[in-house]
């Protein structure tokens, strides 16, 4: 049943601000608008956000009071770093004796290059004793005299002893200075990397604070009472207060919004998301229902910023065709947009009369091998989108669809030059463009050990049809274009979950310490507005680096989708069989909860033990978990501790690499509790008990256990 409650997602791009309204119950798209991004308005991008919201509410017939969730994604932090538009940072190093020499070296961060010829504006002052209030005040006065607009406090080992940094932060607060303490940005060791991450965060802090205040005031004035959330670079959202503390988390959040949309709308469990615009394609990985995240490189140096692992290829829907020696040699990186040319396929048949191919330099320093058409209507670019339309690869109603006959007419002069037919010429164009994308896709599949038989390619962005369908065809992989692909980013913003990541370096971490990190992450998302009953926490313990990492996610309300959209038993069986690459008759139902069904089959192998691959399918018919060889056991919450202890003991392996507990996942109610990141049996069982602690003793639990090789 539909309600009048809506979730609003707004994506603030460099040129346009896109906004969508999504039904809060069914999660179906209700409306979408596009307005120019208001960079030069006195209220900055806040003006465009409110304008987009107003138009959206008018279009869908809703009021501000109907908005139950409002979030926006912005490129502002990224652009500030790319353009060098940052504040001067006053870095206060803390320490005496050997520590002093370590922190004084941090002054070298003023050599960090923002843009060619422009370095990070940073001034340094030193404090030997942070409890010496006059000395702290003198250091702050010194950096302010040199132009500091924001302060960073950094001290060796502040992760364990934060009092020194906190003393500087308190003193700076009395002066009204925005301040960042290095230990607040990350709790990982590594003075240089921790401080560098904090310095970059501080450099964009004043600009982001001003924007946050304007957006917040504008949304409140518009009558929206729902708390404003902001897109993070790891695919989740955070509260506005959290963004004020750590604006760096919004850097690189643009690609994260798209993959968040693919996760929530398309329900990808294993595969790659390719977001294609006019000029480039961003490629990211979804593995076992989660986005792949890693520490990002910022200003050419590694950081402690956990961001989406996205790799960009300079091929998009507007990429121009390159020709040399009578053959197609490539597509891009120059696009029709940059060259100031219209796509030939979007011209009229009349405009293309008498078209002849010419080779040009789109920009002065480009090679003269980009193919264009000079025709009755002027000069037009031959693009990847033209070729995709000529081959009929663009679906009906797609953002990039045009009259196929016109697209064929656009390719025909080039086909004549190449001495071939239109279909072959169009195929050569798409082959040349997608070859670059395929190389990155293949690398990412190897890096993340994705199974080609189960990994799906999902295309998003307005140019998706120019890349994903052809790539799927040439690789033999399953591929599709996301619904509403042209607004997949604002959809991702509207559907994103609150996310928080807590990392600690704890040598020889015991179960109490691991549970404490888990609890901290869970409390952080609840504090930002997540419904406590729906929070999921994934814990990973890396024995090589002694890093304990907890990632918590949760929605601002408990979301239940319309039952009318749920898949029936036959649909779920078919989804499992397709994923298992076998017929439905060979698939067995192994277990189930109200939200999930577990299917399995057998793979017989000569001279080796048989495999028992498993798929977990949700009520919508989406495969949520792939296990190549697993044991499935059903029990109850009351009996689970004893049953799980036996399963873990039986499946734990011992060898030169140490003890390796099995990868354990629990199906509980509507959730899949993923405990696979823990290798030590005792903390693993402690985490399992914590997942069970608040549930009724007779509630069913399904355990999926994989022995690690």
Provide a short characterization of the protein structure:
With 709 residues, the chain is of the alpha+beta class. 33% of the residues lie in helices and 29% in strands. Helix 17 runs parallel beside helix 20 and helix 19 packs antiparallel against helix 20.
Descriptive report:
Strand 11 (228-231) and strand 12 (237-239) form a beta hairpin. Helix 12 crosses helix 13 and helix 19 (640-651) runs antiparallel to helix 20 (681-692). This protein has 20 helices and 39 strands. The chain is α+β, with helices and mostly antiparallel strands. The model has no long low-confidence stretch (mean pLDDT 90). It is globular and about 80 Å long. The protein has a six-stranded mixed β-sheet. Strands 13, 14, 15, 18, 25 and 26 form a six-stranded mixed β-sheet that branches. Strands 8-5-9-10 form a four-stranded parallel β-sheet, with helices on both faces.
Helical/strand content category: alpha+beta
Silhouette: globular
Q: Uncertain spans, ≥5 residues at pLDDT below 50?
A: none
Radius of gyration: 27 Å
- Cα-to-Cα separation, first versus last residue: 47 Å
Biggest sheet: strand arrangement: 3-2-1-4-11-12
* Share of helical residues: 25-40%
- The average pLDDT score comes to 90
**Tally of DSSP β-strands:** 39
Strand content: 25-35%
- The number of helical segments is 20
Largest β sheet strand count, sense and barrel closure = 6 strands, mixed
Helices and strands in order:
Elements: E1 6-12, E2 16-23, E3 29-36, H1 45-60, E4 67-74, H2 76-83, E5 89-94, H3 98-104, E6 113-115, E7 118-119, E8 122-127, H4 133-145, E9 150-154, H5 163-174, E10 179-181, H6 182-185, H7 191-203, H8 205-221, E11 228-231, E12 237-239, H9 240-245, H10 253-266, E13 270-276, E14 281-287, E15 290-291, E16 293-298, E17 301-308, E18 310-313, E19 319-324, E20 327-335, H11 336-339, E21 342-343, E22 356-360, E23 370-375, E24 378-381, H12 384-390, H13 404-418, H14 422-447, E25 456-460, H15 468-475, E26 479-481, H16 488-495, E27 498-505, H17 511-527, E28 536-542, E29 547-554, H18 569-580, E30 588-592, E31 596-600, E32 614-618, E33 623-627, E34 631-636, H19 640-651, E35 653-655, E36 658-660, E37 663-668, E38 671-674, H20 681-692, E39 700-706
Parallel strand pairs: 1-4, 4-11, 5-8, 5-9, 9-10, 13-25, 21-24, 25-26
Antiparallel strand pairs: 1-2, 2-3, 6-7, 11-12, 13-14, 14-15, 14-18, 16-17, 19-20, 22-23, 23-24, 27-29, 28-29, 30-31, 31-32, 32-33, 34-39, 35-36, 37-38, 37-39
């Amino acid at each position: 049943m539909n309600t009048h409650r809506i979730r609003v997602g707004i994506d603030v791009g460099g040129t346009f601000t896109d906004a969508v309204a999504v039904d809060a119950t069914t999660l179906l798209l209700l409306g979408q608008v596009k307005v120019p991004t208001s960079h030069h308005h006195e209220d900055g991008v806040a003006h465009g956000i409110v304008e987009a919201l107003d138009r959206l509410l008018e279009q869908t017939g809703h009021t501000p009071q109907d908005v139950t969730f409002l979030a926006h994604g912005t490129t502002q932090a990224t652009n500030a770093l790319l353009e060098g538009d940052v504040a001067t940072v006053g870095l206060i190093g803390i320490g005496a004796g050997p520590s002093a020499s370590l922190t004084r070296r941090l002054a070298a961060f003023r050599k960090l290059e923002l843009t060619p010829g422009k370095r990070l504006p940073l001034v340094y002052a030193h404090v030997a004793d942070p409890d010496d209030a006059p000395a702290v005040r003198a250091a702050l006065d010194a950096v302010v005299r040199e132009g500091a607009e924001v302060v960073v406090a950094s001290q060796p080992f502040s992760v364990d002893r934060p009092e020194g940094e906190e003393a500087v932060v308190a003193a700076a607060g009395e002066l009204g200075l925005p301040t960042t303490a290095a230990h607040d940005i990350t709790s990982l060791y590594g003075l240089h990397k921790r401080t560098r991450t904090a310095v970059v965060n501080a450099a964009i802090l004043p600009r982001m604070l001003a924007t946050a205040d304007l957006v917040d005031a504008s949304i409140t004035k518009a009558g929206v009472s729902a708390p404003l959330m902001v897109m993070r670079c790891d695919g989740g959202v955070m509260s506005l207060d959290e963004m004020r503390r750590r604006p760096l988390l919004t850097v690189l959040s643009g690609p994260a919004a798209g993959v968040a949309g693919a996760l929530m709308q398309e329900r990808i469990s294993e595969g790659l998301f390719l977001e294609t615009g006019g000029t480039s394609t961003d490629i990211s990985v979804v593995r076992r229902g989660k986005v792949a995240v890693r520490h990002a490189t910022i200003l050419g140096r590694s950081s402690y910023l956990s961001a989406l692992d996205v790799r960009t290829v300079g091929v998009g829907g507007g990429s121009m065709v390159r020709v040399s020696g009578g053959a197609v040699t490539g597509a891009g990186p120059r696009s029709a947009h940059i060259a100031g040319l219209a796509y030939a396929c979007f011209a009229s048949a009349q405009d293309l009369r008498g078209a002849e191919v010419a080779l040009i330099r789109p920009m002065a320093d480009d090679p003269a091998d980009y193919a264009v058409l000079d025709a009755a209507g002027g000069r037009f670019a031959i693009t990847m989108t033209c070729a995709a339309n000529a081959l009929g690869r663009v679906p009906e109603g797609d953002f990039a669809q045009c009259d196929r006959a016109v697209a064929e007419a656009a390719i025909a002069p080039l086909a004549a030059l190449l001495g071939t037919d239109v279909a072959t010429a169009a195929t050569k164009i798409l082959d040349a463009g997608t070859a670059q994308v395929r190389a990155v896709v293949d690398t990412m599949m190897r890096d993340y050990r994705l199974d080609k038989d189960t990994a799906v390619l999902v295309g998003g962005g307005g140019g998706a049809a120019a890349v994903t369908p052809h790539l799927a065809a040439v690789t033999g992989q399953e591929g599709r274009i996301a619904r509403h692909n042209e607004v997949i980013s604002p959809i991702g913003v509207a559907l994103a979950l609150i996310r928080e990541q807590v990392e600690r370096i704890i040598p020889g971490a015991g179960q109490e310490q691991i549970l404490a990190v888990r609890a901290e992450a869970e409390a952080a998302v609840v504090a930002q507005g997540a419904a406590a009953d729906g929070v999921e926490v994934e814990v990973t313990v890396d024995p090589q680096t002694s890093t304990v990492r907890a990632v918590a996610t949760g929605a601002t309300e408990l979301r239940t989708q319309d039952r009318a959209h749920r898949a029936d038993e036959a649909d779920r069986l078919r989804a499992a069989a397709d994923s298992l690459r076998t017929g439905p008759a060979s698939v067995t139902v192994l277990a189930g909860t109200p939200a999930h069904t577990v299917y399995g089959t057998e793979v017989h192998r000569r001279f080796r033990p048989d495999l028992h691959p498993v798929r977990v399918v949700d009520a919508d018919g989406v495969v949520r978990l792939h296990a190549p060889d697993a044991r499935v056991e059903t029990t109850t919450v009351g009996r689970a501790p004893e049953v799980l202890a036996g399963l873990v003991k039986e499946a734990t392996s011992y060898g030169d690499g140490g003890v390796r507990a099995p990868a354990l996942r629990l199906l509980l109610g509507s959730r899949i509790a993923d405990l696979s990141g823990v290798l030590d049996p005792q903390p693993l069982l402690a985490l399992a008990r914590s997942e069970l602690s608040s549930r009724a003793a007779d509630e069913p639990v399904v355990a999926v256990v994989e022995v690690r090789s």
